[in-house]
Structures
1.
Amino acid sequence: MPNQTIDLETETTFTPNFGMEATEFAEETETEFGTENGFMAEGYEEMAPAAADLPPAQPNLDVIMNIPVTMQVVLGSTVMPVANLMKLGRGAVVKLDTNVSDPVDLMVNGRIVARGEVVVLENEDQRFGITLTEIVSPAVRQPRSKSAGAI
């Protein structure tokens, strides 16, 4: 598979699959006023349009696809006392908990969704990107550890 470069500034066709499935929004419950379905109590059905009168429900994918998400690539992290943090200045080197050859985490809205290797972009020697090597299963996606700050 050839390398694929995605310009995050102009790309609009990213379709993440986070393993989310539709869930039932309303369950019938018994109350002192009768059975309710979570949206409308019994006796008000005549006020609602019949299902046959409504157009088929279609998600507005254009709206969903334009929802902005925050994407970050995390090189590593470290923990240090505030006193050491206050001593940092221009030229200081912060040692991270990862090696150069370790994969980096690709995070979307604070959750790790993939891992990859840092690469220098072809024909753009001043920019770098990542080559995805692993897509994290939706069942195990979790926020990056709060104990270590992302760098």
Note: The first strand starts at residue 29 and ends at 31.
2.
Amino acid sequence: MKGIFGLLSLVAALAIIAWLAMNGMKDFTGDKGKNIMGAKQRTERVAVKANLTILNSFVNQYRSMHPGEPVTMDALKAAGLELPECPPGGRFELENGRIVYRGPEGR
């Protein structure tokens, strides 16, 4: 079971690297310094979206392996879920059976 989640993590990391290679570099070729903060924020958003996709895939797999059992963070962690590190000030939470990201403002 851990093998598939390792594979999903690898695929997500490769997707982020590919996206950065295709889109991220254009921010550094124009007006120097102007778009660097925007690039960092966009990169963080892409990382959060990729992490949410992986985490919710884990939730769906947990549901299929444990039908009828409630999905809780403790149950997911006991099944091997490790929450990735969030961008500064954010956190991942379980809400209505799905993992959601709460940014620094709480939304």
Note: DSSP finds three helices and two strands in the chain.
